Amino acid sequence: MSQNALATPEAPFQEPKRPARKFTFTWRTLLLAVGALILLLSFTRAVTGAADLTSTGAITASIALAVPIGLAGLGGLWAERAGVVNIGLEGMMIMGTWSGAWGALYFDNPWAGVVAGAIGGALGGLLHAIATVTFGVDHIISGVAINILGLGVTQFLSKVTFAEMKGGGDSQSPPVPKPEVVSVPWDRLGDQDPLRALEAKQWFLLSDVAGILRGLTTNVSLLTILAILLVPLSYYVLWRTAFGLRLRSCGESPVAAESLGVNVYLHKYVAVVVSGALAGLGGAFLAQVAASAYREGQTGGRGFIGLAAMIFGNWRPGGLAGGALLFGYTDGLQLRGSGAAVHALLLVVAILLAAVAVHQLVRQGRARTALITGVAAVVVFVVFALTDSIPPEFTSVTPHITTLLVLSLAAQRLRPPAANGVIYRRGQGG
Amino acid sequence: MSAKESTFADRLLGRVSPAGLLSLVAPVTAIVFAALVTMVILALTGAPPLDTLVVMGEYAVRPRSIVLTLNSATTYYLSALAVAIGFKMNLFNIGVDGQYRLAALTAAAVGGAVALPAPLHVALIIFVAVLVGAGWAAIAGLLKVRRGVSEVISTIMLNAIATALGSWLLNKERLAVEVGGSNNIGTKPIPPSGQVPGLAIVSGTQTKVFGLILLSIAMGVLFHIVINRTRFGFDLRATGRSESAAVASGVNVKRMILVSMVLSGAVAGLVGMPQLLGASHSYSLDFPTGLGFTGIAIALLGRNHPVGIAFGALLWAFLDTSAGILQIKKISPDIVTIMQGVIVLSVIIAYELVHRYQIAAEQRRVSRQLASTAPAEEGTPA
Fold it and tell me: Tell me, what's the ipTM?
């Protein structure tokens, strides 16, 4: 995970106990990482024959599953960067599923649904902000209460509204109008879609790139594109504007921010409301794009997985998007019923672990750590060699197990906002 | 026993000082507020607000409803106690939900697989449940103590992992068998020797109260004794109030975290027992879920006090039961969930406001005293 960050030409034994280096994001490292990943995936596909690893269908499914996780994670990022822990993301997301579906049906316009979903989530965020910022209630407690309330309100409203609509029921809405989808017209290049033909050939690397490219550019919902754009937008607003600096200062040291004249309450309010809106947008995406109707229990804990993606991404938008993609990808492979592909991922993990072990030994000179990582790589490989499928139940918990591993093994490298979850009252700095 | 009761009552009476009355204001305000919100929602959806609440109340005091309320409250009480142990030292055990489900599943499987004389059989099932609940919670405890992982995040993740593990175990290839006459699957039914008979303490109905209501009450008393009458309980509360002060007085905080997490998980393991041993006798797909989150809400309502939690559990169960009549009246029973959510959110806000009021009143009192004793000095900083 830290390979890219450490790819600097420094002498390895100079400072063995150097603190975690700052991750420097450059296009070069990003492109290298993506290239290496594709190479690794196509190697694994060639070895195991699990074509779904890089197939168009799997990539499409992964994107559809990654977007709501990413939106929830962005929601968590906004709130936590301002120092408010938002466990209520799940409840806000649930509210987004209902209001998204209802808005789209009521106005008979998918984009009205998108706006309504964001508003529904934002209302949950507003409630969280009132409780935590104005009244100083513990953030976790308020979040738990909002999760209970969000579920109750949503189930009640769906019974009141959807049950009377044609084709709807107590726990399900009628089919919802979907936002438009767009595709890159590859088939204009030749008489048939050349990418599809290439993908079918199963050539090493070429077919994989074709599959991934086709998956990324075929039948993409406009809402997906909007959601993806929200990641750089969040980065820009939070890290490149004065407003964002003030907002983050509220999460690092509200007292210091106050002493500099920042209206801490206002910034926290904005952050938490935006957080709710993003989670609600994720809910609307679930109802309008990932599925074609509101269903009870549709979120399935994705608000919490969003939180997991945020932690995985070290409270940074880019890392968060990576986490969402990873979790969406494993989910997507599972959803395609491709047990072989999920099983093949074990080989990917084993190779990655082995690479990390070599890196730790050669570049960092941490023999003991490298040994542990190496043993882990061997264990994963043995599991891969001895079994031929992973029970589907366990694939669904990849995000949760990954989060526990990241938190327990890489906690020193994580840097959450310093005043995250700390209750602040105006004027407490004296 | 009488001596213990009198001290318990004394304590209770001691709490009903002006400050205590003030803390009663919070829940009452919250309940009234929640009722108002519910009435507004009912009115907006075209149902008669006041009549509906009256009908709900009337339905909930029927003998059968009372039994149902007591039964639900038995379970809720255990769940809230499990949460409260953690809360007492500022630990958020969000994972009660996963702990009790995993515990009930394994306990049901063990109970269905063996045949023992009655008391031993029940004891074994409960022992397994406690062990599994404690073990699952210990993961979160260890992660916090050894690796500094926030228990909030780890227990949320462990809940999801417990769900996955549970659905993997509850498979016909492993622990599950088909439940007769439906497409439900569950663990092998526990034979009569492992069941706890109900108590017919409410007259006018065939439905019996869970026998394990006695376990619930016993756990409440035990909770009170351990928290307020033992050194461990003192350390627990001290750590919860101020970790640095506890360290200074020689408390091993890491050990306390681990032990209280394990205890919380052990009690969480009991949560599924009244239902399992008293009614369903098997863990199937329709075993109640989400009790852990209800427990968090009730622990908050009852301010982590064993008596307060009892009232909270009864109130929650009462609301749940009263929803039974709504379906017939063609009103969505989810209105009760909304009411419960509003109660929780407003009760925590109300407690916070009362707390602030008390602090402000205290500060005023102190500054008045200081002003009268030393008039030359300037006002104390607030």
Answer: 0.84
